[in-house]
Design goal:
With 239 residues, the chain is an alpha/beta fold. It has nine helices and twelve strands. The chain binds calcium ion.
């Protein structure tokens, strides 16, 4: 699992977790998705998939239904519990798809085997486009965090109704955290998501921006989680 921990997805690169116990299929799917520009990680069984999903926070999961240990249905339930992630489920045949669709486990799309690489990538792209459109709709409404209101479209921030000026990067960092108030991000994750830095250098940059946000918006707008990183909301320990 150590290699999963070190993967940092830059904002431009989408990460896909491929869950499939048949290595030749997994490798073929991964190779095709990599050739399309995705960062791909493979998990060969259900338990590994759940752990990898937690650590990797992929943008999409390609999930085989028939897996040793936890089956695809249970994996789908578990990975959707904490954080919605689009799931493309691979099934052995159409009749199986009908059964699984009836169970409403939370997969977003289904692809019966055998499938072509072209079909697979078309489904993956379509699913991500759907998710992007939904995200775009949801970000047009103002974000609220305590007494702070963030208008994402106009990029204006108010604290107790008073306008507060943030630099573009401060705004990006704060909006990124405020959109996900239940989550904590490591400094390298924030560098990847907000700054687009791939190599994880510049942890002090994150710290200085967090200090600036606390100074401008209040000490409790960003919380420190020791040994992990930062999240939006109270519980801060201002430096
Ligand atoms: Ca299988």
């Amino acid at each position: 699992m150590a290699d999963v921990l070190t993967v940092q997805a830059p904002s431009a690169t989408r990460t896909v977790l491929v869950v499939e116990d048949e290595a030749p299929i997994a490798e073929a799917v991964a190779a095709r998705l990599r050739s399309e520009g995705f960062a791909v990680q493979i998990a060969g069984d259900g338990l590994t998939a759940v752990a990898a999903c937690e650590q990797l926070q992929p943008d999409l999961v390609v999930l085989d239904l028939m897996l040793p240990g936890l089956d695809g249905l249970e994996v789908c339930r578990q990975i959707q519990r904490d954080r919605p992630v689009p799931v493309l489920m691979l099934t052995a045949r159409d009749s199986e798809t009908d059964l699984v669709v009836g169970l409403a486990v939370g997969a977003d799309d289904y692809l019966p085997k055998p499938f072509s690489a072209r079909e697979l990538t078309a489904r993956v792209h379509a699913l991500l486009r759907r998710v992007d459109r939904a995200a775009a709709r949801s970000t047009t409404s103002p974000l609220r965090l305590g007494s702070i209101e963030v208008d994402v479209e106009s990029r204006r921030v108010r604290r107790d109704g008073e306008a507060v000026h943030l630099t573009p990067t401060e705004f990006e960092l704060f909006a990124f955290l405020a959109r996900r108030p239940d989550r904590v991000f490591s400094r390298p994750q924030l560098l990847g998501e907000v700054w687009g830095y791939r190599d994880g250098s510049g942890a002090r940059t994150v710290d200085s921006h967090v200090r600036a946000l606390r100074h401008k918006l209040g000490a409790d707008v960003v919380r420190t989680v020791h040994g992990v990183g930062y999240g939006a909301g109270p519980g801060a320990e201002p430096a």
